[in-house]
Write a structure and sequence with these properties.
By secondary structure, the protein is an alpha+beta fold. Helices cover 18% and strands 25% of the residues. It folds into 2 domains: 31-150, Purple acid phosphatase-like, N-terminal (Immunoglobulin-like, Sandwich), CATH 2.60.40; 160-428, Metallo-dependent phosphatases (Purple Acid Phosphatase, chain A, domain 2). The strands form 5 sheets. It has a 7-stranded mixed beta sheet, with helices on one face. Strands 11-10-9-21-22-23 form a 6-stranded mixed beta sheet, with helices on one face. A 4-stranded antiparallel beta sheet has the order 1-2-6-5, with helices on one face.
Length: 434
């Protein structure tokens, strides 16, 4: 792994595409503006996520009051087609409020395909859908009542990218990074804990985070950007607890992926796996979770891209070790080394950091790159490489990371909230141990 040449990178089509900062997200109307009783209302908390394989599924969710949306079913069709299907929404309570979570999982989707969807049922003519040349076709063409998303490709044959970060909050810095993230046209956004800082007890803050995300995380083509998350201490009332009820807002929205445990894997076909960990917030780092991690990594030795994601860093840039990351370094890092994980995404310290490639805690050209440290909306001053020899780069910057996957090679850009690139590095596919 070596630092990539910035000038050469920026002169390529990749650079110009990844940094197309001029086009903002498409503004979409909210439910109130759409009008009561009409198909295609847009709640201001609407967002997309996944419960299983992102190549063939998509989950549509929002938070609202019962009866606020006349028809909560979700209708969808592939772009350019009128083969609409409608799926009913499942409703569960949103904690500490009279609100509900509305969730619909769309399955049987075609990989690498763009879809239109709306909340409600599409207009019909004489009981049947109108042809594309008129009626429904004109209704869809207006794009005033339909929304869009795209599924992940079946194979990693095409280049694609996603953004990651953590420790967001709801202030202007978090919103600025939402907008910068959307302008990268990512396939999804990975948030490694501490989403809105609701601390398991502040319902208005949890809602504001979702409103900010829903409003701003739309790419330059008008497609909603799905969210993938893992848990952080500010999702939990008390920060570190073994009681699932202490993170009520988090699990109300994300128990599709985390139905039984607070850690999970998300597999994108057979080419990318995200191993999403709980750094002691709901589950102990060692014991059951470490055993599960060993098996989960062993089962994914054939993946071209294998990323581990946790909130509290094993290699912190700000806080002191072993007070921070001691358990991770004891129980998880040996497993990352054993199974030759490609990248570990870390957060919690509110700074930008990139480590040297590390193996057994030492700099090794064949080691693992640890990226972070969670400053989407929060910031602290990190220590420098002189005090933390495992650090290759660190700075006090609100930032997100852009990960560009091209076959067996990956580009990792740290982008500041004003759009400036502050770091670029590369990594390549590793040989795994069976």
């Amino acid at each position: 792994m070596a630092l990539f040449d910035r000038r050469a990178f920026l002169e390529t089509g990749l650079g110009s595409m990844a940094l197309a900062l001029g086009a903002g997200p498409l503004a979409l109307s909210q439910a109130a503006a759409a009008g009561a009783g009409k198909a295609g209302v847009r709640p201001d908390t609407l967002f997309l996520t996944w419960q299983r394989d992102p190549t063939t599924t998509m989950t549509v969710q929002w938070i609202g009051k019962s009866g606020e949306v006349p028809d909560t079913a979700v209708s969808f069709a592939a772009q350019g087609k009128n083969d609409w299907r409608t799926v009913a929404a499942r409703t569960t309570p949103y904690p500490m409020s009279d609100l509900k979570v509305f969730r619909t999982e769309l399955t049987g989707l075609a990989p690498g395909t763009e879809y239109r969807f709306l909340i409600g049922r599409p207009p019909q003519l004489n009981g049947q859908l109108a042809p594309a040349s008129g009626g429904l076709g004109n209704f869809i063409a207006s794009q005033k009542s339909t929304l869009r998303f795209r599924t992940m490709p079946a194979k990693a044959t095409n280049d694609f990218q996603f953004v990651s970060g953590g420790d967001c909050g709801v202030d202007r810095h978090a919103v600025a990074n939402n907008k910068i993230a959307a302008k990268q046209d990512p396939m999804f956004a990975l948030i490694g804990g501490d989403l809105g800082y609701d601390n398991g007890r502040d319902m208005p803050t949890s809602l504001q985070f979702m409103r900010n995300y829903s409003q701003n995380m739309i790419d330059s083509q008008g497609r909603l950007i799905p969210m993938v998350v893992c848990i952080g201490n500010h999702e939990v009332n008390g920060g570190y607890s073994l009681d699932r009820n202490m993170a009520p807002f988090y699990f109300a929205l994300h128990d599709g992926l985390y139905a039984e445990k607070s850690f999970a894997t998300l597999d994108f076909g057979d080419y990318l796996s995200l191993v999403l960990l709980d750094s002691g917030h709901m589950a102990p780092i060692g014991g059951e979770q470490a055993d599960w991690l060993d098996k989960a990594l062993a089962a994914r030795t054939d993946r071209a891209h294998l990323f581990a994601v946790n909130h509290v860093p094993a290699y912190p840039s700000v806080r002191l070790f072993p007070g921070t990351g001691g358990g991770n370094r004891k129980h998880w890092v040996p497993l990352f080394d054993k199974h030759n994980v490609d990248i570990v995404l870390e957060h919690h310290d509110h700074a930008f950091k990139r480590t040297h490639p590390l193996k057994d805690g030492l700099v090794d050209p064949n080691g693992i790159l640890y990226l972070g440290d969670g400053s989407w909306g929060k910031i602290r001053a990190p220590e420098g490489p002189d005090k933390r020899p495992y650090l290759a780069a660190a700075s006090q910057s609100h930032h997100l990371s852009l990960h560009r996957l091209e076959g067996e090679q990956r580009f990792h850009l740290a982008i500041r909230e004003d759009g400036k690139i502050i770091d670029v590095c590369t990594s390549k596919k590793k040989a795994r141990r069976a």
